[in-house]
Write a structure and sequence with these properties.
Length: 518
């Protein structure tokens, strides 16, 4: 096949995808297309598993295809690139395979898992240079290197051969025999993958609806299409770090403005929910950017009923520590949540009365409280239920009980667990480390059967952990050391809904009581 340079851009891209077929499979093999199980839904979603590639992302395709086209002289000069992580791994994979030296510039915030993977794939052929806090700063440094060393710059998305390499994943979808699809949701950073994939899908299935998906704080392609020209965003949200690009690529923009039927945006919470859906349906862990297409499809599931949908899980290079943060972030829960701060009298038994009066049958997933006043307490409860109606009924119960309350869902002090405690209001405190069994009523049973007499609840820091237990740090205060010591001696190591990890020693309890915040 010979290259026709007179073709318009979209036809050139189709031609280059055919050429890419001859190159990319020297570096890696095709990835599977799998049906995602969604219990109780008639929505048929197929997931292209690019997380199962050698670099756990689709970026190897474009990098390998581009580097395979280098002349002998260009290869001898070496290559330089900038990447948030996945493109860097693709360059590293190709560099080692082709014996080409590569210098890779990455933001300082690039997850360690991606840095380590670059070194693993590239070995002695690659070097990493961490520069700045954003992808754009890394690009600036890499371009400066290109100018001074005459190395070949391998762009992450704004390159015809790179876009064509990404388009081979769409070729595999077409050849899978599982199509045609009614719609495809394609995530966009710079736009290279969306350009290549949408072009190829439209070639074989002209009736398919292609939806470009961006994070709500990263929507550079959406801004460009609406303005009719590329827009430079002042800043981008970094939660979906693989798509955190301030300006869409020039070539991808020229393709996407005609190949995409529409654009949509997703929130970080929707992405988190999609990550959980992928885990529950396919037992795979996606990086945030990798789940954006699914997040958009799930957000529009009502209009997609009965249709066959395609999404691309474009990467799984997520830092292990980030997995924990994602699991506990907004959007990860399968049930509905609401956080309320309620005023109760600072008297023994008041907390139990609140649970009995207003929260009966409601799951308390987070409980934050510290004593700051001698007359009133303001405990904060995150309540969980299967229906919006159950949560909506709580305010009326609180009002009927004469409680003053406020909704603090998403409040900064709640998210960061800034729990105040006035140590000068405590006389003889004791702090306990407890585990609560994750079952309805465990907290109620503990308060009802264990916190009695002169024991005054002064501190409570509890949240569900996703395990079969929820961990809590509890502070109690007593009128005398005798009553405190008697309580601790009489408390069973486990009981109704709880197990005692340990009572903290007197020195630790005193330190916690005087710290002001725990």
């Amino acid at each position: 096949m010979t290259r026709d340079e007179s073709l318009p851009l979209d036809r050139k891209l189709r031609q280059e995808i055919l050429f890419a077929r001859e190159r990319v499979y020297h570096f890696a093999q095709a990835t599977p297309l799998q049906l995602l199980s969604l219990p109780g839904s008639d929505l048929e979603i197929w997931v292209k598993r690019e997380d199962l590639s050698p670099i756990k992302a689709y970026k190897w395709r474009g990098a390998a295809n581009r580097m395979a086209t280098l002349t002998e002289l260009e290869a001898a000069r070496g290559v330089v690139t900038a990447s948030a992580g996945n493109h860097a791994q693709g360059v590293a994979l190709a560099a080692k395979k082709l014996g080409i030296r590569a210098r890779i510039y990455m933001p300082c915030s690039t997850p360690k898992v991606k840095q380590n993977a670059v070194l693993q794939h590239g070995g002695e052929y690659v070097s990493i240079h961490l520069v700045g806090d954003s992808y754009d700063e890394a690009v600036k440094a890499a371009r400066s290197d290109e100018q001074s060393t005459k190395a070949m710059y391998i762009h992450a998305y704004d390159d015809l051969q790179v876009m064509a390499g990404q388009g081979t994943l769409a070729d595999e979808i077409v050849l899978s025999g599982n199509g045609p699809f009614d719609a495809a949701y394609l995530q966009i950073g710079g736009g290279g993958m969306a350009a290549g994939v949408s072009t190829w899908l439209k070639t074989y299935w002209p009736g398919i609806e292609i939806i470009g998906v961006e994070g709500i704080g990263q929507a550079s392609m959406k801004a460009a299409i609406e303005a009719g020209r590329r827009i430079q965003l002042p800043q981008v949200d970094l939660f979906c770090d693989g798509t955190a690009v301030k300006q869409a690529g020039e070539l991808p923009f020229e393709i996407c403005k005609s190949s995409l039927d529409r654009m949509t945006t997703v929130t970080n919470a929707q992405v988190t929910s999609a990550i959980r859906t992928l885990w529950e349906g396919l037992r795979c862990i996606s990086e945030p950017s990798g789940a954006m297409g699914l997040a958009a499809a799930l957000a529009e599931k009502d209009r997609l009923a009965g249709k066959k949908i395609l999404v691309v899980l474009c990467g799984a290079n997520v830092d292990f520590l980030q997995i924990g943060r994602i699991a506990q972030s907004e959007g990860s829960a399968t049930r509905l949540n609401r956080t309320l701060r309620v005023r109760i009298p600072e008297t023994p038994g008041a907390m139990l009365n609140l649970l009995n009066d207003s929260f009966s049958g409601i799951d308390v997933t987070d409980f934050q409280y510290g004593k700051t006043d001698t007359e009133n307490a303001w405990p904060c409860f995150t309540l969980s239920a299967d229906s919006a109606e159950a949560l909506a009924a709580i305010p009326e119960k609180l009002n009927n009980g004469g409680y003053q309350w406020e909704d603090v869902t998403g409040a900064t002090d709640i998210d960061f667990r800034a729990i105040p405690l006035r140590g000068d209001l405590l006389t003889h405190p004791a702090f306990l480390r407890l585990d609560f069994y994750e079952r309805p009523g465990a907290l109620h049973d503990f308060l009802a059967k264990r916190i009695s007499g002169n024991a005054n609840l002064t501190y409570f820091n509890y949240r569900q952990s996703g395990e079969r237990i929820g961990r809590a740090l509890i502070g109690l205060d007593f009128p005398s050391t005798f009553e405190r010591d008697a309580f601790l001696m009489a408390m069973p190591p486990q009981g109704e809904g709880y197990r005692l990890c340990e009572p903290l020693d007197k020195e630790t309890s005193a330190r916690l009581a005087s710290s002001g915040k725990i």
